[in-house]
Each structure stands twice: as C-alpha cells, then as structure tokens.
Amino acid sequence: MRVHLYTGSLGLVRRSGVGQAVAHQRAMLLAAGVEVVTDWRLPADAVHINTVLPDAPLAALRARRRGERVVFYGHSTEQDFRDSFVGSNALAPLFGRWLRFCYNCGDVVLTPTPYAQGILLGYGLRRPVLALSNGVYTAFFAPSAARRAAWRRARGLAEGQKAVVSAGHFMQRKGILEFIALARALPDVRFFWYGYTPPALVPAAVRRAMAAAPANLCFAGFVSQAELRDAYCGADLFCFCSHEETEGIVVLEALACGVPVLLRDIPVYEGWLRSGENVYKARTDADWPALAAAILAGTLPDLTAAGRRVAEARALPRLGAKLCEVYRRLGAAPAA
User: Fold this and answer.
1) What's the burial of 300, exposed, middle or buried (CB within 10 Å: 0-12/13-18/19+)?
2) CATH class of 2-135+315-330
3) CATH number for the domain formed by residue range(s) 145-312
4) Residue 264 and residue 281: Cα distance in Å, rounded?
5) Which residues pair with 129 in a beta bridge?
6) Which of 158, 173, 181, 327 is a good FRET partner for 86, with 20 to 30 A between their CA atoms?
7) Residue 16 above 90 pLDDT?
8) What pTM value is reported for the model?
C-alpha cells in the first residue's frame, strides 16, 4: 500500500504540533509496512492532508480527481484558534466556517481525541470523524539519567535545584501568563519555556507579561526534538497550563520521558489522563503554586510510571495498525 503525505505549505507550520504530527504519521506508516511518498507523480491509495491553509482543499480536489482517498486531519478547531495570535478572537467565527469547508473535502476526518471528535461532530460535517491519537516516539522520548545530568549541567543547575519545563507558542491559550505567574510564585525554582512565535503575532498582553517575567524564568526558544527531550529528562516537573487542546503532543512526550506532569483540568484529558493516577491537574489558577510545590517537594505520590504507560499505549507502531484499519474502512485499494 502507498500513502501520500501531502507537504504543500507544511513548511509554514513545521515548528508546530501539526508539523510534528506529520512526522509521526510517517513513522506510523513505515512501522506498518506502508510505503510513504510526497510526490504527486506517484499514484497512491490515500492522501493525508494536515493543514487548513489555502492549498489544502485544492490538494484534496486533486487527489479525489485521481481516485485517491483523502484523509483530512482535524488538528484545529475554532475553540483552540481563540486566544492564540493577534486578531484570532475576531477571526475565529470565519476560521470555523473555513474549517468546515476544508474538512468536508476529505473522505474521512481524523482527530486526536474523543473530545476533539465531539467538537468536530458538532460542526455538522458531512464526513465521518474518527479519533486517533497523534502518538509519541516512545523509543526516542524515554527516561535517561545521563541526559538529565547533561541538561542540568548545561543549564547551570545546582545539585538539588528544582526545574520546571513547559513548551508551546507564545499564546494566552497555551497558558503562558499562568506559567509566568507560577515562576513568580516559586522564586527558588528555575523555569524554562521552550518554543517561539514571531513577535508580530504575539498579542500585546503576552509581550508585556514576557518582558516583565521574573529572573528565574528562561524563554529558551525553539529547539530540536533531541534538545526538547533532554529538557524533559532534566526537569523535575512538566507544567502545561494550556486552556484548550485537541490532544497535546508535548504532554505525551513528557509522560514518555518519565517526568511528573501537572496540567490544567480541561475536558480534552477526560478519560485518559486522571488526576492522582497518571498526572496531576489544577482546577483553578490558584491551585498551580501549591500543587507544583508539593510535586517538587515529593510530598505527593510519584505517578511517572503510570504516565509512561499512557505514552506506551500511544506508541507509533501501535497506531500504525489502527491507521491501516482506517484505510480498509475507506476501501482504499493497493496502488498500481
């Protein structure tokens, strides 16, 4: 079987979760013995489309004219577009209509969680909507005492000094304001935020908060997957204050690396991430400092082994077999 991973305009989102999801799809397919191509000159049984940029529906139309099944990935919702970039709230209703148009161009829509599936079903799409995790490289993202020690040395952390890591764009939705407030509340702890957003796209309130961030918080910028993995391994806590997600690849990566995870209690995690079982959750903004301090002090139970099991259940080879089942449901036939 041959699958075309459509890469048009992917360069614009390569540093986002969408870009990482495409890399995961390639790994899933290869693990399942599926041939992966990116060239229109080669016929394919199915075409994956991951963006909602203007070229995406044109690519879907081209694939359908060639008799190829279209798998449209529902990474975005109107809800998670809000509180992101400059002007996103004003544009959100228009963006929602555009999403409906794009997703209806596929034969099936895949989205990472039952929560996201429920949102997209509420859009009244004419196509089936299925939930399939983006997955995680559990062989790559894994606990390592050596990487932990190397990262902590590189960051100048003293013996016993605690470090908290988060990752994402500079967006209010990602919880950056709460992360800055948490760093201010725990001045003896070092905080690191990994990720980058061009300043022109960052809302003024976020820019002001970042400019006034306390000295114990480092904005470490965009880094390679290997550097991010090392940061997970070196951290004493991964804290993800995001208000809205369709899954959260960085959460899976942190769980796979065996770092304690503290999340906002939002609906996307219901049913698979349980507070006190495999992660901890903050229900209100006032909960963050006390929970983070207790995890760092070791006064709450260690949930990292259970968290690692959550990641292993979403290992890419396992998901490759599930993806092939989607193709069978679509009736995709082997390429000539």
Assistant:
1) middle
2) alpha beta
3) 3.40.50.2000
4) 5
5) 109
6) 181
7) no
8) 0.94
